[in-house]
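Course assignment 3, question 2. Fill in each field.
Student: A.L.
Task: Predict the tertiary structure for the chain below.
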Amino acid sequence: MEGRHQQQGLGQARGQGRHQQQASGTMVIVASVIGLAIGGSLLGLMGLSFLASLTLLLFSSPLLLIFSPLLFFASLVFVGSLVGFAAAATMALTGVSALGWTFQEVGGQRLLGFGGGDMAGRVKEQSKDWGRYLQQGGMGI
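Answer field:
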């Protein structure tokens, strides 16, 4: 067991020697020049892109000021139509869910666990309760 630990220690010492090699001065200079060439060109392109954006903004701002009332009301119409479509989709989903629940209840299938038996019997019982209520005069009118 001790021999194995000693062998691992020797292997680690040799591995550290390989990773501690030093780069020569010319390699550092070449890497720096390449890095400056790539970074400088990217920085120059970024500046060009920024100047182009500012120029376009400068030329388009008067048009934006002139047409801003039209754009404002057009955006209001667009947002209103999106809200209307969202409300319609919500109502459609609610209606389809209600129809599905009703068909399940009438068909006798209780997938959601609501209700406790025969739907027709419950409807008859409810109608009898309403009949008694109406015969008694409702709310005392």
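Instructor remarks: The first helix runs from residue 2 to 19. The CA atoms of residues 4 and 137 lie 101 Å apart.
Grade: pending
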